[in-house]
Structure formats: C-alpha cells, structure tokens
C-alpha cells in the first residue's frame, strides 16, 4: 500500500474532488496553462499559487496574487511548508492537503501536467489505520529533519562569526527557540549577553525589538498605550491603540531586574498566552514570539528580584560565565581592530515555526516521560525520592511546568543531533537550565552558601531511570 500527496477540494465547484500531486511544480490559477484551473468568478489571479516538492516535503507559495493565499486562515508571505491536514484557501475555494492510498477503493483524481481540473468525480474519503498514520508521520518528520538540521547548524555557525566561545549558551538558546520557550540569561556586565541576542536576531529573519529596563519604565512602555485622536473635520474624538515593542518576534528585555516588579509583570501575559490585553481589547502576538531577558546578579545595587511567577515563565535560566583565557585573547584581538563582520540571514520565520511544530509532534517513550517526571518531583522536599540535599536546603521545588520543559528541551536536543529518538540523556542535558530557577533555597542553604546547581547535581546522581520493577508495579 502506497500513499501519495493530494489536494481534496472542500469548498468550491469541484467540492469532493481529490487531485493527486504528481510531477511538481503544481500551479493554481484561472489561466488555462495552470495544472489546476480555478473558476474566474471566485476572484483568483491568473497564476495565483504554486505547490513545489523537495525531498518529499511539499510547500505552497503565493505568486504575487491580489487576494492572497491562505494556509489555515493565515495569509502567507513567503513559501509555507505543508503538513497533512493543512487547509489552503484561495478566494472562496478551500482545499485540504492530505495523503491518499493507492489501494483505496475510491481512486484519487489523477491528472497529467496538461490536464486542468474538470468536473468532480464525487466525494472521496481515505481512512488510514493508526499504524499507517504513525509511519506516515515518522517519514514526514524524518524528511523535514534532513532539511532543517543543516539550517540549525548554519545558524550556529553564523552566530559564531561574531561570538567567541559560549557554545553551550548558544546551543541552549536554539533549544529554547525550537521549544517555544523564553530564556533568562544571568551574568555580570560585559560578558556579551546582549551581543549574543542581537546577533541571533540578525541571523534569523525575524522582527527584533529591544527594551532597556530602567527603574522608571512603565508597563505601557512595553505593551503599548491608547492615544486620543481628534478628527478635525467632524470634531469626533476616539482612542487608538499604539502597539508597544512587545509586538515583535524576538524581544530583548535588557537588564530586566533593573525595573520594579510591576513593570516586569507586564510581560507575564505575553510570555504565557501570546497576546496583550489593553483597555479591554485583546491583541494577538504574531508567532514565533521569543523573549530573551538579561539579568545582572541580584547582589548588585539597584536591582529587583523577579517574582516567582515571572521566573516560572522562562523555560531556561542560563548562567553566562567568563570566557577561557584563549577565548578572551581572541575577543580582545578581534574587537580592537577595524574588522567588520557581515552576518547573513540563515533561517526564516516559517522554518522556525516548522521546527517548533516538528518538536511538538516528536513522540516520547513512556520511559523518558517517567524519568523526567521523577526528576522534577525529586526537587520537592516532601517527595519520597528527594535526595537529602533537597530536604535539607530546598524550601520549594519545581512545579509541573518543569516536567513539560524537560521533555520539550529533550525533544529539541534530539532534533539538534539529527535524531527522532528522545532518550534520558537528552533530559539530563536540560536539567540545569530548566530546574535552577524553579528551586528556591531556604535560610540554611543561603547561610552556608550552597549553590542550587550542586543540589541539582545531587538530584541527577540519586534519581535513577525507571527499571523493570517500575513497570511491573504499574500493571
């Protein structure tokens, strides 16, 4: 049993017709030289859109039409990779991208390159069993992985032109981006935290905004404000919402701990729900949306600790440390000359969204889920598996969001190494940045100078992966 990609017409004169996608590219429009000819009365352009295939991955692009091409009700600006079930809308016609099995009792409508779409042959429905659907999903994900992993490597290589060292930090930034997570970067001034984020934004083809957090910054300076406008001809007054810098793709919240908690909290809704509410109106944020915040250590003067609710919105807490001696020599040499670095765009917003979707779709075994859950629960002093270090020095441990982020980071880590298999090593690699800002030390730990990373290391050492007995007990 083989399956081919096809378009099934949902709304339009040919509703119910299934068109096999063979011999790409496949053009759509009202001109007779298109592979799929659309009715002139629907308002389509002569050459409206085109479907192309690359190594098994299909994409659709708009050919400069007047009315636009929509995928899942979103107008596309650049080529959009198609996933099974995606709906394509051109004017009033709607079609769905799906698989068709050649062994089905209801054949798909197959056309030669010169044959236009004619009268419908009647409704056609293909029902795949669960096993076949899983195989198709794995094959599609593997094809996407072959295309996207080189792009990830290209992004890291491009950033490394401007950033010396900090390989682990850059790797973690990419993991968070793929997981739809936000990052808090903590380090002393002068360690290139802001430069790293600016460089990353320059390499990615995304909109970028920077907010310099200061003690007098107001919440409306982040989200936006209503402005009173007067129509001079009628004298009518009305309010218009002016969007703030949060309406972007990559937001740099520079020195976030230099502003009071009231202003810090202005980011809570945007980071969790991806929209902003102002004057009773809700304004969505265009994906991808990624907050990268920098923070100076709390013991410095003029800083405000982030509230626990704000900290929990960050997927990772990264500690930026001093470079090695060799790296510092290279930094000093490169930054004190007139050498200019030209950075190129290496990944588009559509490709990032595809990566994020692929990470979410990547399956995880029950074994890995159980291990991630155990790690998160072992950070809580009242848990039976909690090590002695947790019971002695931790006041409050990580919540369920830590388990979610451990799994998402593990999935992203598997993708970064070009694998579709997520293992417990991927979970362990993510433990420090995911857990360190979700474990709150008590007075005993603070007085003895115990570092939370040492406690996480104890958790990783004493909490073991599930074994055969765990599964026997589950039965």
Layout of secondary structure:
Layout: E1 3-11, E2 18-20, E3 26-29, E4 36-37, E5 49-54, E6 57-62, E7 69-71, E8 74-75, E9 80-81, E10 87-90, E11 93-101, H1 130-159, H2 167-178, E12 183-186, H3 193-203, E13 204-205, E14 208-212, H4 220-223, E15 224-230, E16 237-243, E17 250-254, H5 261-264, H6 268-273, E18 275-278, E19 281-284, E20 290-295, H7 308-313, E21 316-319, H8 325-335, E22 347-348, H9 349-361, H10 366-377, H11 388-393, E23 394-396, H12 400-416, H13 424-435, E24 440-441, H14 443-448, H15 452-462, H16 468-474
Parallel strand pairs: 3-4, 12-20, 12-21, 13-22, 14-17, 17-20
Antiparallel strand pairs: 1-2, 1-11, 3-5, 5-6, 6-9, 7-8, 7-10, 10-11, 15-16, 18-19, 23-24
Structure description:
The chain is α/β, with parallel strands linked by helices and 475 residues long. Helix content is 35%, strand content 22%. The chain is built from 16 helices and 24 strands. The strands form seven sheets. A six-stranded antiparallel sheet has the order 2-1-11-10-7-8, with no helix packed on it. Strands 4-3-5-6-9 form a five-stranded mixed sheet. Helix 10 crosses helix 12, helix 10 packs parallel to helix 13 and helix 13 packs antiparallel against helix 15. The protein is globular, with a radius of gyration of 26 Å. About 7% of the residues have low confidence.
Calculate Rg over CA atoms: 26 Å
How would the global form be characterised?
globular
Number of H/I helices: 16
Strand order of the largest sheet: 2-1-11-10-7-8
Distance between the termini: 36 Å
Strand content: 15-25%
Mean pLDDT: 81
Q: Assembly state here?
A: single chain
Structural class, by secondary structure, is: alpha/beta
Number of DSSP strands? 24
* Helical residue percent band: 25-40%
Regions with pLDDT < 50 over 5+ consecutive residues? Answer: 102-135
Main sheet record:
6 strands, antiparallel
């Amino acid at each position: 049993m083989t399956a081919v990609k096809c378009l099934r017409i949902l709304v339009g004169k040919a509703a119910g017709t299934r068109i096999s996608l063979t011999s790409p590219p496949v053009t759509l429009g009202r001109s007779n030289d298109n592979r799929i000819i659309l009715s002139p009365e629907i308002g389509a352009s002569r050459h409206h859109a085109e479907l192309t295939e690359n190594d098994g991955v299909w994409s659709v692009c708009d050919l400069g039409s007047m009315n636009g091409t929509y995928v899942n009700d979103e107008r596309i600006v650049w080529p959009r990779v198609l996933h099974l079930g995606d709906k394509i809308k051109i004017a009033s016609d709607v079609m769905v991208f799906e698989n068709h099995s050649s062994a089905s009792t209801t054949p798909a409508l197959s056309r030669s390159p010169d044959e236009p779409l004619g009268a419908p042959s009647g409704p056609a429905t293909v029902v795949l069993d669960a096993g076949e659907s899983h195989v198709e999903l794995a094959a599609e994900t593997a094809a996407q992985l072959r295309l996207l992993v080189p792009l990830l490597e290209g992004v890291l290589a491009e950033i490394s032109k401007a950033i010396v060292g900090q390989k682990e930090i850059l790797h973690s930034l990419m993991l968070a981006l793929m997981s739809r997570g936000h990052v808090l970067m903590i380090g002393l001034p002068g360690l290139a935290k802001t430069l790293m984020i600016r460089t990353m934004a320059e390499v990615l083809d995304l909109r970028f905004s920077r907010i310099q957090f200061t003690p007098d910054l107001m919440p409306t300076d982040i989200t936006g404000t209503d402005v009173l406008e007067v129509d001079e001809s009628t004298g009518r007054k009305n309010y218009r919402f002016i969007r703030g810098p949060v309406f972007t793709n990559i937001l740099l919240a520079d020195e976030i701990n230099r502003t009071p908690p009231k202003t810090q909290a202005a980011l809570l809704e945007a980071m969790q729900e991806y929209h902003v509410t102002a004057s009773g109106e809700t304004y969505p944020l265009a994906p991808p949306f990624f907050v990268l915040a920098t923070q100076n250590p709390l013991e410095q003067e003029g800083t405000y600790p982030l509230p626990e609710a704000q900290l929990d919105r960050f997927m990772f807490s990264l500690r930026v440390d001093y470079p090695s001696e060799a790296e510092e020599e290279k930094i000093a040499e490169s930054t004190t000359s007139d050498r200019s670095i030209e950075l190129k765009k290496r990944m588009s917003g559509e490709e990032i969204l595809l990566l994020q979707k692929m990470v979410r779709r990547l399956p995880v075994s029950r074994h890995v889920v159980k291990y991630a859950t155990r790690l998160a629960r072992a950070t809580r002093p009242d848990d039976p598996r909690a090590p002695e270090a947790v019971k002695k020095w931790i006041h409050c441990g990580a919540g369920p969001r830590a388990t979610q982020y451990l799994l998402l980071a593990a999935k992203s880590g598997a993708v970064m190494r070009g694998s579709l298999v997520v293992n417990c090593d991927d979970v362990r690699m993510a433990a420090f940045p995911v857990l360190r800002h979700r474990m709150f030390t008590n007075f005993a730990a603070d007085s003895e100078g115990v570092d939370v990373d040492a406690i996480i290391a104890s958790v990783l050492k004493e909490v073991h992966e599930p074994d055969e007995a765990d599964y026997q007990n589950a039965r």
